Structures are given as C-alpha cells and as structure tokens.
Design the sequence.
C-alpha cells in the first residue's frame, strides 16, 4: 500500500511542533518524531500572522517529507491557540498556500482546544478540560461542540495556572499587610521565588508574559497545600470547583441520562503536574457534577491530537464535528 | 506680611496638576486655581523619569509665580503615584534641581497615598482609603504610617474599581457560558458597553490601560446591584469587606481603645461615585471593623493635600510623620 503522509501541527505560546506520520501504516504506540520551533507565531492587531506561520511551517514540513522521500501530503491538521477568535487570516490564506506549496489535499484548521480534545479522547464523545496557564473546557456528542471558559487571565480561565498563582500571590500579600485571609506559608514561598515582596509589582507588571509569571507560582500553592497550609488548600478546592463547573457546562447538552454512560471526561495540560493537592478535590468535584461520566487519563497531547485528526481526514474517518471557527475542514483536491 | 508662596503638585496616571497659594494668607475655602498637564510623567525601567517631571513642572510653576509676581518658593510638596516604589530618581534628583531652578527652600516628596490622606483628613490621625481604579489604605497616629493593599490589579487592590469591574465581567461571562455564579444582568451590561462578548478578550488584552478598562465596568455593576441583581450586590458586598479589611489593617497600631475616640476614617477617590450600592455595605463593614472610629467625608482631593503639606512645611506646622519612601522632607535652605 502506498504511504499516505499526513502532518500534524501544534502552534501556541511557546512555539510550534510539527510531526509527520504515514496514515496507511498501523498506528504507532509511541509519539511520532516531531520538529520543534521555539519561535511563537506572531499575533498582530488583526490576528494571527498567517505569513509568519507559513515561514516556519513550510521548511519543517519539507524537511520531514524529504526524510521519508514523500512528495505530497494527504492531509494536514493545524491546531493553534487563538484559532477560534483571531484565526481569520489563517482560515483565509492557509488553504491555497498549503495546496500550492506542499500539494496538501485536505486541511483541518482547529482551535488548540479541539486538538487537545482529540489528543486526550480521540474521536470519542465527552468533555476535555485543557488546563495549563489558562483553562478551557470543550465537550462534544459528535454532533455539536460546547465550550466553557477560556476567556484569559483577566476575564476567566478560572482554576487554571495563572488563576491559582494570582490567587496565591494575593494571599501572600494579605499576610504581608496583615489583612484577613492571608497565608504566611505563601508569603515565604513568594519571597523565595520573587525576592522581597515589595518588589513584586515591579517584577510582574512590566512583563509581557504576566499570565505565565503568575502561573509559575501555582506549584508553590500546591506544595504549601500539601504541607498543610489551609489557605492554599482552600485556593485549590475553589480551583477544582471552577474546573468542574467548566467541565459540567461544556458537557454535551441532553447527554445527562443513560445514553451518556459511555462518555468520558479527561483533564489535559500542565496543570495536572500540581498533583494530588489539586487532583484529589477535582476528582471529587467531577464525581459530584458528572456522576455518570467516566474520568479517564488523556491518551496524548495536542500534537498527537493534530496527527490523529490529519490521519482521520486522510482516511475519511473523521467523526469529530466541524465548526466554523473551532474546527474547519477544507478539501483542496480529491484523493 | 510678606507673601509666602508654596506649590502643591499632584502627579498620576492622568497627568499633573499644580497649584500655587500664599501660605501666609488666611486659608481659602475654595480650591486654589490649578494648572493642568494631561501628559502623564513617563516611567522607565528604572522608575519615574525625574527629567520628564521637571520638564512639565518648571514651566507651570514659573507661569503661576509670574502671575502673582513671586520670585521664590518657600515650599513645594509633590505627591506622585509610584513615589514609594519607583520614585528613587525623584528623591535623588529633585531637591537640587528645584532649589536651583525655583529657589525652593523646603521640599516634600510624597506618595500619592500621603497626599490623598492629607487632602482627606488634613493632619489629623486616622485612616484614609484612596480608591479609584486601584485601592490603598493608609493610616497614621502622627508617629508612624501603616499601609494596606495598593498592590495593583493583578496582586490586590481588592475592592477597587478594576477589581469590581473584573469580577463583574467574570460573572457576565459565566452567564454567557452557562457556568454557575453568572449574572445575565451583567451580561447585558457588558454587551452594551463592549459589544458582543466574544470580542471582549480582543477588546481588553491588547490595551496598555487594562486596569482602567476593567474599572470602566464598575459603575455598571453598581447599577445592576441597584436594580436588584443579586450577583452584582454580592460583588459590592465583597468589595466593601475588602475595603474595610484594608482600612482596619492600616489603622494605627495600638489605637483601638479609648484613645482612638477622636480618630477618623475617610474614603477618597472616584470609587465613591458608585453610590449607595457600595457605600451602604461599606459603612456597615467599617462600623463592624472600626466601631470607635468616626466615618467622615474627605475634605479635599490629593492636590489640596499637596498644597496643605507645602503650607505646613513653610510654616513649621507639619504634623504628619516623615518616612523614607512614603513622605520625605528636605530642607534646602533656611527660611
């Protein structure tokens, strides 16, 4: 059987990862080799810069194809942070550009929440919470998508890394001032990470990556909670509740009865590294809000999700529903 | 009696205001005429730019002096946002520069919280909460200062305008998603102010004045609370509690018994414009936390506070305590 080369792409705040697999070969249990760029695609005032994305993607794709002697791509799936809200230029420019440059026959442009979903649950119905610095929940019954939160660190992302870190730093500064609700354990942790807290505003406000700086404090909140600090445990309990709220809201409409017995919920992303101080209350909250839904571990990451979507696209086995901004599929040339 | 010209300066995020008065004349009940610059003093990576401040201040001061035929200044008081944390260059450069350029004999360099205090309570002991976009509480027994909060919109300023606005927008988006704790009244208000909420992240995150944009939603939270929205009322009740926490923490140490019967607490700044939905729960919280302290209205604004401090400095009647960063007084030349 002829090789059917497909490309998966994951583009986000820390750069771009690209992987090539043969969709005609038996699935490989290991993650495929990936090329990585640590240069995040630029976002301008009118959205994600399509030319800057292509500038990085095309050489990586050509390099991967040349390694295997491939000449065209049966399918490409690109998952990008911001695709749904500021991906207009990608949707307008990538189909023709990729067909021209790489002979791509089918193209999927997906929100990174969709590739996170596909990485975590494949094409099965359920809910995936993608939680790292930010937090978004996405659910599907394979007919429609439902999204909850994902509004960013000033408007939501409740329970995500930046939220936990920010709430922990607030509690540290309450302790410093002597206001109610403070935690001296978090104050000590904040001083160990950032130095004297008088300098904290100057260390955080001028930075462009404020959400990531806030999120860098989240592991300290988890450690303080594990060591018995009640304020920290309270912050993680509230985070767990917010995360379960988002999961419950994104859960497919009408799928609350027996027909949802096979549905699954998975958490994916760096927030899981906080371990038991978050995961124990989160499991309890999820059991309370979604009692009939199985809690499972994510199978793979968003890059694995992109590869899976590209493979499904090339073999006519796509089951996840298309959507005008979350997940747009274009057939550029018949196979 | 010879006129004793003194200058008060208020420098902050919206620009600089400068007023000249004769400290030897009877106090005027009306606010003195002020010159205004709408060009905020620049802040560089190493703090507030002293040269840029002087560039604006000197022409305004000379213009005011020439109007009255004055030739030197008995005292100048400058209140500036950021003086305590990033005012190092101002403390290093302004004394010599102002002595040289304007024959200034005494100089006070104050945090804007200190000039807000002096504007609100004059030189009487107590606590002042300066609340607009941000929030800081400052108290004194005329021996020491105590500060609470004032950490900015990501780390604190709990109960201030940006905090109320952000919390209100979070509740609006909860309603949009269908998560718990949402308010449809706030969702309608957010859409009337910012348009379709799908565009809210793009309308807020790229802006440099994010705290002010968040604070612009606070009056809508107050209006929704006045119209019976329980989520909005809950946000303002929590804001009131945070504000009273800060006031209680900044309250002079040890002054909780009978000796504090004459002490006062005042709120100053734009947040008062939210009216009863905030002020009614705030009065109740303050009565609970500081039962022996009289709640009074602020007498004047931070510019009036600067003028009062400059006058006191020129007449040897300064009672507010000096402090290395909050309130530094220099005698440049004997009167």
Sequence:
């Amino acid at each position: 059987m002829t090789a059917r080369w497909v490309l998966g792409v994951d583009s986000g705040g820390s750069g771009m990862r690209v992987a090539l697999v043969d969709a005609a070969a038996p699935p490989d249990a290991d993650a495929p080799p990936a090329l990585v760029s640590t240069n995040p695609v630029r976002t301008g005032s009118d959205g994600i810069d399509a030319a800057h994305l292509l500038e990085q993607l095309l050489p990586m794709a050509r390099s991967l194809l040349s390694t295997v002697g491939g000449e065209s791509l049966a399918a490409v799936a690109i998952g990008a942070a911001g695709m749904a809200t500021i991906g207009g230029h990608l949707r307008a420019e990538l189909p023709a550009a990729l067909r021209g440059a790489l002979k791509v026959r089918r193209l999927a442009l997906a929100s990174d929440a969709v590739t996170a979903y596909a990485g975590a649950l494949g094409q099965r119905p359920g809910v995936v919470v993608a939680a790292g610095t930010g937090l978004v929940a996405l659910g599907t019954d394979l007919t429609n998508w439902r999204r909850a939160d994902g509004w960013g660190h000033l408007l939501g992302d409740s329970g995500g890394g930046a939220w936990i870190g920010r709430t922990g730093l607030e509690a540290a500064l309450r302790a410093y001032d002597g206001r109610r609700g403070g935690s001296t354990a978090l104050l000590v942790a904040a001083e160990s990470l950032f130095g004297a807290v008088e300098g904290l505003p100057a260390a955080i406000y001028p930075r462009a990556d404020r959400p990531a700086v806030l999120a860098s404090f989240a592991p300290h909140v988890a450690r303080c909670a594990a060591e018995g600090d009640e304020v920290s445990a309270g912050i993680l309990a509230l985070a767990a509740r917010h995360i379960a709220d988002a999961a419950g809201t994104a859960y497919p409409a009408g799928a609350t009865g027996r027909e949802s017995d096979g549905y699954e919920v998975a958490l994916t992303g760096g927030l899981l590294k906080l371990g038991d101080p978050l995961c124990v209350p989160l499991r309890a909250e999820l059991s309370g809000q979604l009692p009939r839904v199985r809690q499972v571990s994510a199978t793979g990451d968003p890059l694995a999700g992109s590869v899976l979507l590209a493979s499904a696209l090339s073999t006519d086995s796509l089951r996840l529903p298309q959507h005008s901004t979350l997940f747009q599929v274009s057939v550029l040339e018949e196979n």
